[in-house]
Amino acid sequence: MNKQNKIETFDQLIEQEHGKIGTESRNKYDTKVQMFIVSEMLKEARKDAELTQEQLAEKTGTKKSYISKLENGKGNIQLSTLIRIFEQGFNRRIGLTFL
Questions:
Q1: Is 84 within 8 Å of 60 (Cβ atoms)?
Q2: Number of domains forming the structure of the chain
Q3: In-domain check, residue 20
Q4: pLDDT tens digits, one per residue of 67-83
Q5: Which of these, 7, 51, 92, 96, could form a disulfide with 55 (CB 3.0-4.6 Å)?
Q6: What is the pTM assigned to this prediction?
């Protein structure tokens, strides 16, 4: 996209700043965004359940430091671990949507 073009949508801004979908820079950006979303969902669910990070870690067989890393978007999480945290920690199921 030419920088002289007027940006009219959020998608155009993201493409200008991070590249087209499928490029290495865009993939890195998208990965960071997804981790941020997961971290915020986890944090909100934990607070709604009125659990501390330590209590959640105990319920799910993880460590407090791991929960903290996830909530701060600093750690990688396997899908199986995310499912276990929501099912065992919050008695909730998560759904996935593939686009």
A1: yes
A2: 1
A3: yes
A4: 999 999 988 888 899 99
A5: 51
A6: 0.78
89's tokens: 């920690």
Joined together, the tokens standing for residue 95 give 């759904």
> What are the DSSP calls for 62-73, one per residue?
--HHHHHHHHTT
Q: Which position has the token pair 């899908």?
A: 79
Residue 4 has pLDDT above 80, yes or no: no
The structure tokens listed for 10 are: 């959020």
97 falls within a domain: no
Kindly indicate the confidence band of residue 1, based on its pLDDT and cuts at 50, 70 and 90.
very low
Domain that holds residue 43: 10-90
Q: Has residue 1 been placed in a domain? A: no
- For the four alpha carbons of 29, 32, 37 and 38, in that order, the dihedral sign comes to positive
The percent of residues above 70 in pLDDT, for the chain, comes to: 95
Q: Which CATH number characterizes residue 85's domain?
A: 1.10.260.40
